[in-house]
Amino acid sequence: MDPAITTLCVLAVAAFLFITELIPLAVTAMAACTALGILGVLPAKQVYAGLSNSTVVLFGGMFVIGAAMFKTGLAEAIGVAVVKKAGTNEIPLMAAIMIVTIILSSVSSNTGTVACLMPVIIGICQAAKIPASKELMPLAIAANVGGTITMIGTPPNVIVTGALAAAGLPTFGFFEFAFIGIPLSIIILVYTLFVGRHFIPDKSSGAMDEEAIKAAKEEAGASDDNAPKSKTKMWISGLILIGVVVCMALDLKTVPLHTAAVTGAILCVITGCLKEKEAYAGIDWVTIFLFAGMLSVATAMEKTGAGKLIADTVVGMMGTSPNPYVLTAVLFLISNVLTQFMSNTASAALLAPIGISIAQNIGCDPKPVLMALGIAASMAFATPMATPPNTLVLGPGNFSFNDYAKVGVPMCVISWIACVIIVPIFWPFH
């Protein structure tokens, strides 16, 4: 069988498994690259080459630093302090919740941020006699959009960066995502405060899934709420994060992004902010293996011409010379619809190599197309299963599926329009 056809068959099976989640996402990704090796599409050295990718190392290091923020209690302390100072008026409280969540989610776990802040927000709402639903939905929304500001804020950002690297193309910088992430965060914040909040139902607090909250906190690296917190370690973890971010911002040639991240992770362990086992536990291995596996699939698609076959088909359907704006808008919609019903990481991993092939086929720069794909995968507002933050607030907010749709669909449309306008400004097609 032709290697390109073989690759497409493997991709089709992977896509089916990603959507249905019959087996874990990471297992699907690793099985896909393993199958490509067994079938002779990829040489043995390239099958698991994604695991040594510098972006994987970067992501792993930042996971550890994020875990230190939660373990020392720094992330929670910052969030709680800001939220409590906001008072008990519904709109100022909503603004404070969203702003602090956006900031925390840009450099740490979106899910962990929601898990740590949710009990505090419910308590404040009960004391102030504010429907908990009115504050919990904005919490999840802010966690999703805040992750788009930096490369490590959300897995799709890492996925599209890695896809560019795998294709031998210029990649995104650590803070480059802020050019679209910050405007989007501001737009979504303003919309929620003045328009979106009217679509959020008034519902009393439902039962919290204590096990889910505990699991989310543990995944992010947060310690037991009752455990004493060391202010010294809080300061140390904060300073390490600031130091790493500054190094990344300066873009030092002697200290690449992944080196800065790993150095920060090492310092977190050496200084006692995290124990060795806690550092390992703080790494999201699902994302790591999914990313690494799909990098190999992307390599196979490029080398066998499978990506070009898909690109030719899509471009043929859109006419002889499709407008790159139309292409970007269409791919954004596909990515955004998929992410409402499947993992945003899987959605980005599936579409990124295809987006590169299509962009190259019509002679435009793949960067704006992939930026739109990545952002679209993070705009997961419209269903409770679209992203873990949405799922976490489902029970406590007493939300229904339709509640998410009413609030989230307009936000998805706004994000779509904003991306189609803003992305080409910072990343021109030609």
Helix count equals 21
Low-confidence stretches: none
Portion of residues in beta strands equals under 5%
Strand count, sense and barrel status of the largest sheet are: none
Helix content: over 70%
Helix-strand blueprint:
Blueprint: H1 3-20, H2 25-38, H3 44-47, H4 54-71, H5 74-85, H6 90-107, H7 110-128, H8 133-146, H9 155-166, H10 178-194, H11 210-220, H12 231-250, H13 257-270, H14 276-282, H15 285-304, H16 306-318, H17 324-339, H18 344-361, H19 366-378, H20 388-394, H21 401-426
Helix pairs in contact: 1-2, 1-15, 2-15, 4-12, 4-13, 4-14, 5-6, 5-7, 6-7, 6-8, 7-8, 7-11, 7-20, 8-10, 8-20, 9-15, 9-18, 9-19, 10-21, 12-13, 15-18, 16-18, 17-18, 17-19, 17-21, 18-19, 19-21
Please describe what this structure looks like.
By secondary structure, the protein is mainly alpha-helical. The chain has one domain. The chain has 21 helices and no strands. α5 (74-85) runs antiparallel to α6 (90-107) and α9 (155-166) packs antiparallel against α19. The longest helix is centred in the C-terminal third of the chain and has 26 residues, at 401-426. It is globular and about 65 Å long. The model has no long low-confidence stretch (mean pLDDT 86).
